[in-house]
Amino acid sequence: MSTVNLSTITKQFGDVTAVRNLDLLIEEGEFFTFLGPSGCGKTTTLRMIAGFYYPTRGKVKFNDKDMTTVPPEKRNTGMVFQNYALFPHMTVFENVAFGLKVRKVNKTDMRKRVEDVLKKVRLDSFIQRQVSQLSGGQQQRVALARALVIEPDILLLDEPLSNLDARLRDEMRTEILRLQREYGITTIYVTHDQVEALTMSDRIAVFKDGECQQMGTPTDIYNEPVNDFVAEFIGETNLSPVTFKEKQEAEFIFHSEPLESPIRVKDSKQNIAAYDEGDELLISIRPEAIHVSDTALTDQHNVWTGEVSLVQFTGASVHTFIKINEETTIRATGLNQGPSTYFEEGTTVRVHMPEDQIRVIPRARE
Ligand code: ATP
């Protein structure tokens, strides 16, 4: 097991800066995810950890050992690629044993280690099967077994589930997590799928244009996004531009042009006092934090009247879109509590944004 320490890593390919000034410390045994849209530098970062690329500037350390320019085969990392990179004409045994052969492990030990790891990934009865005769999910398990059998210090997974259908992806998420916990291995996982990131990770780094926007636990990142990019990339949110007006007792007052009214925010864990009056910011509120009602909501702040423009039923929950004016539609999500609780399209409703559920955030840099 190993920690991974990246200090001020930059990677340039000609004119393209794929990763810029990245600092990251991944703890021993941690499940750490790089999350972000296509082209944001996740794979390049993973490849610098694996040794397939060397950084243009900065250092890669495992524990306290400088690995910056150590070649991949001397790093003791296990990697699972998006397309698995298995040898289709070889058997499951031959594929999994490959790394042990390269390391010149003797035949008896090799047999035992391959059998043990195949039991762990529940493929022991397929040991002599050709890889080309396996399903996608089974091939995924072979790729995992091949990475784990060398007893790596660090497991690197590059979008390992993207070729599987939704149900199998769900199953493999649990499977990967089970194996990771069993082996207690430091794991770095690359994905653009927020659900994978939220459900599997101890911590997540959210990337945009080669830079880390935010790093934290799934709950930190979901509940306290640092800017609009993170708020929109992870989960759904309602964003609106506002101008900071003033502080009034325990509340901060913002003016929203699109909502044509003041908005009150309670500073729960945010540092709004650091902003200056007149600052142009954004407010973000999650759809599940919004209350929708068809009765009048008196004596409350942050209440708007609108018309239900769309209702989307997803099974467990119901999304309601409420048009406040030409510019603004608010999205609210509630649990499905039976047909009598859904609104009809066209209904006039009141929308309430609780003061303590609103986050005030700056825009991400372009
Ligand atoms: P994806 O999810 O699509 O794999 P990513 O977040 O992993 O995307 P990277 O593959 O790390 O992104 O790419 C980051 C940027 O670096 C992109 O602009 C990409 O075009 C560029 N890039 C990556 N590898 C190379 C290379 N070998 N040569 C030139 N440019 C590259």
TrEMBL record:
GO molecular function: ATP binding
Assembly and interaction partners: The complex is composed of two ATP-binding proteins (PotA), two transmembrane proteins (PotB and PotC) and a solute-binding protein (PotD).
UniProt keyword Translocase, yes or no: yes
Domain of life of the source: Bacteria
Family: Belongs to the ABC transporter superfamily. Spermidine/putrescine importer (TC 3.A.1.11.1) family.
Alphabetized Pfam families for the sequence: ABC_tran (PF00005), TOBE_2 (PF08402)
Keyword terms: ATP-binding, Cell membrane, Membrane, Nucleotide-binding, Translocase, Transport
Name of the protein in question: Spermidine/putrescine import ATP-binding protein PotA
InterPro entries: AAA+_ATPase, ABC_SmlMolc_Importer, ABC_transporter-like_ATP-bd, ABC_transporter-like_CS, Mo/tungstate-bd_C_term_dom, NA-bd_OB-fold, P-loop_NTPase, PotA-like
Cross-referenced SMART domains: AAA
Catalysed reactions listed for this entry: ATP + H2O + polyamine-[polyamine-binding protein]Side 1 = ADP + phosphate + polyamineSide 2 + [polyamine-binding protein]Side 1
Lineage: Bacteria, Bacillati, Bacillota, Bacilli, Bacillales
Task of the protein: Part of the ABC transporter complex PotABCD involved in spermidine/putrescine import. Responsible for energy coupling to the transport system.
Record-listed E.C. numbers: 7.6.2.11
